[in-house]
Amino acid sequence: MKKFTLTALIFSILIVFACNSKDSKKNKFRLNRESIIQEIITTSPRYKELTKGLYDVVIKNGGSSIGISLEGSPDAKKDKVISYSKTYDFTLYEMYTERKMNTTRFSFSPEKKQLYEYDAVNDTLKPIDFDKNLLIKFESFNK
Question: How far apart are CA 29 and CA 56, in angstroms?
Fold first, then answer.
């Protein structure tokens, strides 16, 4: 009976590790791809310009934080976002107790390897500068 219990325990542990290994690889891929694009955005001169001192202003106005979130993706289901998009679409937002206020939209085109800022007035995407060295990181996670 002891051999059976020990064998069942070892078998159960092996199954748990095997299942977690596959899931963690998938989650690592998704998180890394998203985090690399976030890094592309947050290190861009335009993002830095927009957010310089923004946190303090939001706090002074009764808000709690600022952040950036993924809203659209070429693989919406895998990236767990609502909207399909040919680009990775992020929104810079300010968080207040009564609302989340979106202020700026950024898009990264994996095909063109270009970062854009959405111009709401003209309904266009404007190319913006970013650290092109981060494309190497993006490509390594995109394979």
Answer: 34
Q: What string of pLDDT tens digits covers the 143 residues of the chain?
A: 555 454 544 544 544 444 444 444 444 444 467 889 999 999 999 999 999 999 999 999 999 999 999 999 998 888 888 889 999 999 999 999 999 999 999 999 999 999 999 999 999 999 999 999 999 988 887 66
Domains with residue ranges and CATH for the chain: 28-142 (3.10.450)
Q: How far apart are CA 20 and CA 12, in angstroms?
A: 12
Angle at 51 between CA 28 and CA 37, to 5 degrees: 25
Asked if residue 44 lies in contact with residue 128, where contact means CB atoms within 8 angstroms, the answer is: yes
Region of 79 (left: φ > 0; alpha: ψ -120 to 50; beta: rest) is alpha
